[in-house]
Design a protein that fits this description.
Blueprint lengths: L1 H45 L3 H7 E2 L22 E2 L5 H14 L2 H23 L14 E5 L8 E7 L2 E8 L2 E3 L3 E5 L16 H12 L3 H7 E3 L28 E2 L5 H15 L4 H13 L6 E6 L6 E7 L2 E9 L4 E8 L6 H4 L1
Parallel strand pairs: 1-3, 8-10
Antiparallel strand pairs: 2-3, 3-4, 4-5, 5-6, 5-7, 7-13, 9-10, 10-11, 11-12, 12-13
Length: 350
């Protein structure tokens, strides 16, 4: 008995030490990423003239940090400094910053969104649309909120039409939401890039998931033939503040009512958003989701079940993903991923 008890105690001691080391590893990972961003952002700030720096470096407190939008330049005034006012060296510094917080896939997706906005501008120019100049890779903004610090919260935002990246750094960890991605055209239809669809997984996997369902499952999943409307821009994503009443209820089919194949597809969809950020951050977000019980994930569908405009929602306690295939002959998509507990680091800052 003594021998068995001694073995048991040694095992428990080993597990306790292992758990402590893993916990420290995660903490150090967050600290290292914060340290890396502090260095990158301070280097970028030091390259700016006093006038431009005053536009980029803004207070952490207040409402400006908490504002976000996917609207084009003529419809929304953004904080920070515009891409085309920066030197090539400063632009390279921002790309380095983006790569530090995004996965390879997420970085390429962000660049693809920016490039597609340039394509949209060219299409509008060919149509002699006077607003064409508002759709360009030059119309993206960088802003820093608060002095970069290991002890005090701070963050940075990179945003323009169809892209909003919001990172908040605290001594307790890093927040990476809200994260908005969109495309118009969702699939490039002509020219040298014809056939390119940057957000293919988010689009096709959801359609495949719906197509795999039995009629009884579809009856649960498809809520309405009418698309959700955000009240301002027509059919769209609707979790704009994170406080909308609909977020208090769940609709559609639950994870536990899906087949094993369907469960794999819904997790693949969730990973399409979580996988935009670094593997460490994505792992933390997915572990948080697992802790809430995967059976609480709900998938709902609105609009057409064929090739026309549609919307779907993945909703779990503390998390929502929305995808709207909305206008322009159903070739214009908006999507958003929100951590309802920790958008803009609100839980980490407490």
């Amino acid at each position: 008995m003594k021998t068995n008890f001694g073995i048991l105690m040694r095992k428990l001691s080993f597990l306790t030490i292992l758990f402590f080391q893993i916990t420290q590893l995660f903490a150090q990972s967050g600290l290292t990423k914060n340290q890396e961003n502090i260095k990158l952002v301070n280097s970028f700030l030091s390259s700016l003239s006093p006038d431009i720096k005053s536009k980029v470096l803004l207070p952490f407190e207040g409402t400006e940090r908490l504002r976000w939008s996917n609207l084009p330049q003529q419809s929304y005034q953004r904080a920070g400094v515009k891409w085309n006012t920066l030197s090539n060296e400063q632009r390279r510094a921002i790309h380095t910053l983006l790569r530090s917080m995004l996965s390879t896939e997420g970085y390429l997706k962000a660049v693809g969104i920016i490039e597609t906005d340039e394509i949209r501008g060219e299409i509008m120019k060919s149509e002699q649309n006077r607003d064409a100049h508002n759709y360009s890779q030059n119309n993206y903004f960088i802003a820093v909120f608060g002095e970069p610090s290991l002890t005090q919260p701070w963050g940075w935002k990179f945003e323009g039409h169809h892209l909003s990246l919001n990172f908040t750094f605290t001594k307790n960890g890093i927040s990476c939401t809200p994260l908005f991605t969109g495309m118009n055209p969702a699939e490039v239809l002509d020219g040298p890039l014809a056939g390119r669809r940057v957000m293919a997984v988010e689009y096709q996997t959801a359609k495949d998931l719906l197509a795999s369902m039995s009629e009884a499952q579809k009856k649960q999943t498809v809520i309405s033939a009418k698309m959700p409307d955000d009240g301002n821009n027509g059919p769209d994503v609707t979790a704009r503040t994170g406080n909308e009443p609909f977020l208090k209820t769940f609709e559609g089919i639950s994870y536990k009512e899906m087949t094993a194949t369907q469960k794999g597809m819904i997790l693949q969809l969730i990973n399409a958003w979580a996988g935009n950020v670094t593997p460490e951050l994505a792992k933390q977000k997915l572990e948080k989701l697992h802790k809430t019980d995967l059976d609480n994930i709900h998938f709902s569908w609105y609009g057409d079940t064929g090739d026309k405009a549609f919307y779907y929602r993945i909703h779990a306690p503390g998390m929502i993903i929305e995808f709207s295939n909305r206008l322009s002959e159903s070739n214009h998509i908006h999507s958003v991923w929100r951590d309802l507990d920790d958008d803009f680091g609100k839980d980490l800052i407490k």
